[in-house]
Amino acid sequence: MAMTVAREVTKASLPEIGCQFGILDHTSVLHGIDRTFRRTRTDESTALEYTILARLSRDMANRRRARERAWVQEALALGQIIPAQLNLEAAE
Predict the structure, then answer these.
(1) Which of 35, 53, 69, 78 is 20 to 30 Å from 7 at the Cα level?
(2) Torsion angle, CA of 61/63/66/70, rounded to 10 degrees?
(3) Could you give the CA distance from residue 34 to residue 31 in angstroms, rounded to a whole number?
């Protein structure tokens, strides 16, 4: 279930998600995601658990991104970073 949430909440690829779980083959991640979705269609408690976990994960990710944006805006205002530095990081 965690791999399914990771796929939904992040922009990570299947191999990247697999790496975080110690899985080398992306097809194993795909199988896990498929299995989770099949279980949520047949088991109401699993569907509820998945819904709650995905919602909490999305909320946490959104709060983290908001903190990062606030930090960048503050750093820009204080002159600690310049806009060109942000463009270089985005391009990498």
Answers:
(1) 69
(2) -130
(3) 5
